[in-house]
UniProtKB/TrEMBL annotation:
GO terms for cellular component: extracellular region. The chain crosses the membrane at residues 20-39. This is ILEI/PANDER domain-containing protein. Keywords: Disulfide bond, Lectin, Membrane, Secreted, Signal, Transmembrane, Transmembrane helix. PROSITE patterns: GG_LECTIN. CDD domains: ILEI_FAM3C. Pfam families: ILEI (PF15711). It comes from the Eukaryota. Belongs to the FAM3 family. It is found in: Secreted. The keyword Transmembrane applies. Residues 121-206 form the ILEI/PANDER domain. One of its GO terms (molecular function) is carbohydrate binding.
Amino acid sequence: MLTVRIGKRVHKTKGIPRRYTIKAVLAVLFLAVFLIRLYQIHSLSWFYGFLGPEWLQVPNVSKVTFSRTITRFSLCGFPKPCPEGDFSFFITSGAANVVGPKICIENKMVMGYAEKNIGEGINIAVVNGKTGEVMRTDSFNMYNGDPEPLMKFLESIERGSVVLMASFDDPATKLNQEARKLIRQLGSSAIDSLGFRDNWVFVGGKAAEGAYVKSTFEKHIKNDKDQNKYDNWPEMIELQGCIPYLLE
């Protein structure tokens, strides 16, 4: 039998091996990524506080400055600048019964989770009004605790002291009228209406005998199930400001 093939035989043309094509594509991708990264680095070098190589850094921006900025933001927020003769404070209440409160003096945390000195109820820091030095800190369970230790603590505060308070979870269930009176004498105007699971922060002081204290550093949010941010608790509160040193 005779078989006849019509047409020309097709010969395959040798092309570029597949492995070389893959290598070329990878090389192009690598170059593109490198150029994009280089552009980002040059752009970031003009961002305040960027810590790149020396030839990328902005003049007069030191690593120390950047480190302090990050510390302020992560631990105590960005404190309000205070005039000479004042010291700064920054307070947050707790958030529900999950995130604890925080009290900072001169950008240093004096009460918080990291310090292991906070608890549910009312958290208190006492500061020397003349020096800004933290003298005492404590927390008092006001849900099922005894109000007596709180009252003894408040009565023992020395005159001329600055007192900072922050709530966590429930600050009021066991808060009796005598304890409320002692806090009112420190300058609080919200203490009489403080209720179950309210959020509250306050800065007051113990004045000289016979003197009356009225504080403007106070925030209070009522526990209202229709308005609460965290189901059975209101939103967290922040408060910051400047306090003049007590003159001799």
